[in-house]
Hints:
Blueprint: E1 2-7, E2 10-16, E3 27-31, E4 40-45, E5 50-54, E6 65-68, E7 75-79, E8 88-93, E9 98-103, E10 112-117, E11 121-128, E12 137-144, E13 152-161, E14 164-173, E15 177-183, E16 192-197, E17 201-205, E18 217-222, E19 224-230, E20 239-244, E21 249-253, E22 265-268, E23 287-290, E24 299-303, E25 307-311, E26 313-314, E27 317-318, E28 322-325, E29 330-336, E30 345-350, E31 354-360, E32 366-373, E33 382-387, E34 396-402, E35 405-411, E36 422-425, E37 428-436, E38 445-452, E39 458-465, E40 471-473, E41 478-479, E42 487-491, E43 500-506, E44 513-518, E45 530-535, E46 540-547, E47 556-562, E48 568-573, E49 589-592, E50 599-603, E51 609-614, E52 621-626, E53 642-648, E54 654-658, E55 664-669, E56 675-680, E57 688-694, E58 700-704, E59 710-715, E60 721-725, E61 739-744, E62 750-754, E63 760-765, E64 771-776, E65 781-786, E66 792-796, E67 802-807, E68 813-817, E69 823-828, E70 834-838, E71 844-846
Antiparallel strand pairs: 1-2, 3-4, 4-5, 5-6, 7-8, 8-9, 9-10, 11-12, 12-13, 13-14, 15-16, 16-17, 18-48, 19-20, 20-21, 21-22, 23-24, 24-25, 25-28, 26-27, 29-30, 30-31, 31-32, 33-34, 34-35, 35-36, 37-38, 38-39, 39-40, 39-41, 42-43, 43-44, 44-45, 46-47, 47-48, 49-50, 50-51, 51-52, 52-53, 53-54, ...
Amino acid sequence: MLVAYGSAVGLSAELVLDVTPQPIVNDLTIADLNDDGFPDLVLAHESANQVTILFNEGSEFRTPTRIDGITSPSLIHPLDLDDNGSIDLAVFNEPRSELSVYFSSVDVLFDSAITLSTSGTLNDLADGDFDSDGKTELALSRDGTFAGFSPRHTVQLVASSEGQLSYTGQFLEAIPIFMTSFSDIDNDGDDDILTHAERNYFSVRYGGSDTPLTDRVVLEDGQLEHFLLEDINSDGFEDLISRSYLASEIQVHLHTGSSGFNEPLVYSLGASGGGGVGGSVSTGIPMILHDLDLDGNKDLIAENGKSLSILVGDDGNFAEPLRIETSRDIEKFSIGRLNSDDIPDVAVLLDQGIIETFLGNGLGGFAREEFIQLEASSAFDLSLAIVEGIGTEPGQLIVGRSNPNTVNVYKAGEDGRLGEPTVVQLDFAPSQLEVTEISGDQRDDLAIGGIATQTRMPVVAFMHQEESQDLALQEPVLPLGNSDFGQFIIRDLNSDDQKDIAHVGNLENQLGLALTTWLGTGQGDFGPPRFFELGFIESRFTNFDISDVDSDEALDIVINRVIDNRFNEMDLVAVGGVPREQNDALPREFMYEAHFNALVEQIDELGRQTKFEIDSRNGNVLSTHRVIGKPDAISNGETDDLVTVYSYNSHGLVASMTDPMGRRTEYEYTANGLLELVTVAVGLPEEAARRFEYDAVGNQTASIDELGNRTEYEYDSMNRVVVIREADPDRSGPLTSPVSTFSYDANGNVIQSVDAEGTFNSSEYDSMDRLVATTDQLGNKTSYEYGPDGNLISVTDPLGLVSRNKYDARDRLVESIDPEGGRVEYSYDLSDNLISLVDPVGNETRFSYDSR
């Protein structure tokens, strides 16, 4: 065995340890077992059921000490799991899939053991205090197989309590995990978990006592097909309703507020409606909440083979299921009013392109009304929705067809019977229909999502219901981001009572899921997109929703994602949603083009939009448009944007600027490109000019303002300003021009200045040219103190009052404390970008950045 000793300049010496008499070494680790300040070597010998310890005495190791009776140690890790100050040894026994921890005391090493059964193979062991409870936890990285299904790649947390080992938490990755380690990555004082998996994929779970796994929280685990988030018991909190594959039942988790979700209530959907398998995988939405009997409670409707199961709701509880029988297996269904009786009806899409409609009686019962046979190769090509009419007017059945790319609109009569369809041609293949209201007129509109024919990118378009009840296709089609289609939802994301769009899809090459959001204006259009990468390498998902499920006053995204072909995991992911109580404080946003990384659009805190036109040849700004209302366009008749236009000379310097009032400013330069003349209000009675003069090396020696006032600058041999002589106060000659002077030390620091009024100031510096003190003419002194890393840690004013700064291990300012105790706190991301600032009264400003 080779030991290489390090020094300040690298590896300086080697020591070869002969352990050849020992059995094969399967793993080794280093720990100070005898608390002498020197790390000792521990070797694992799986075949011999023993470990070997080589105690380190500084320059050499003692003769190996064997400890027998440690069963099949294929993987070992030292830690103090019982927090008694002595090193324990965690041992993985691969043949038995068991984890054992051999505990030590002050006098005896590894004298007692506790064993815990595991599943699958452990790849790594690590320890830390993830939940900040003051107790050590052991993290197991493993690949396990369950019930004959595909492997799952997990990190499980294990703790010791009352002589037992127990699991305290886990999370999953989509690909095999190589290594796990604990570290306080975000410098918040809590241990975080870093996992390294295949393809150099790294994942971080941020630890803490308040919200363990703050980036991803597993809400439910298993073979989930679909879930809903909705307040079914009218307590103000959205509850979780989930459904599993291959099971004719649903689970209801009632939300209790800050304490999370209750244990699930399980409701049967009844036997499958003949021919199909109850709870079989459906191609559309397998369950919907809707008040069918008009009693103010949400009822649950779920696909169940050749029938729809209806569970009538009562303040969060559900009754035994009723049933709507259909002629074939159900693929998709929709609920809404078709006839004019104000009672919800149901439209069902069956396999082989058959549509059946059922009219409701207001008691939860339905009667078959109509049967439509569509020409379609598969129900996968079809989507379905009911758009309700205005007032008591009949509704319309909408069928999206991705082959060909059309929407068929069937208007219903007062009796609910459908007329001949109106066919609307699309430039994309529709795959999702959502009924919503985005125009502020209280009429149902239709959102249509799918894949664009030309670009193969996801898009959404809207059909607006006009007063005639005709559905008119609106322009433009909205792109949904750089991913596959996935799913979109329409919600109020920022509590402004306007409908917004959220879309989740897989990024290109399955490199994780991405969320894109658009905030609505309430007039049928939307602001620019905001993009969030959600991670989850090689994951797919069945559906998602957005809600404040953890009651922290900020929106979260809940995703039911597919770990492999059979196992799903429902995750809560915090994506920095807009806090609900701050709906009037929108983020300031900036968007850039790809070639020059030039700013092309910004939106301020009040939602005011400014656009920048960029010259594609060189990145120069050609114009800025401060948008008033909607962007100016012939199509909308808008002409009130505030536009500033720029022109450039052959050297790329600004030659002119025309402001929104039409006033032109021109710029002239010297042969060396120095600004020489600025003329404002060219051609107008107010025209005026400002001039600049320079010496041979480019120092500005004079500036002459629009009134002819001349200010002069003098320099020393190092090109440093030593005199500023301002204009004669009355420009008539007799008065003395005000003069300011500056003196420097040998390193170029300003050590003395005298302003035009004769006020004297001096400055002192340390050997590293850092300002350490300033003194004014009255002797008032301000002092500056620095830490060993060069950070300014305190400022003491002339009255002796002290302001202090605190920094983290990466020299980032994390807290400023004023003399009165007021604190400003700063937080950063892993790339050192400032992401939040909290002022002394608790007001928080947040910052977000793009990937560039």
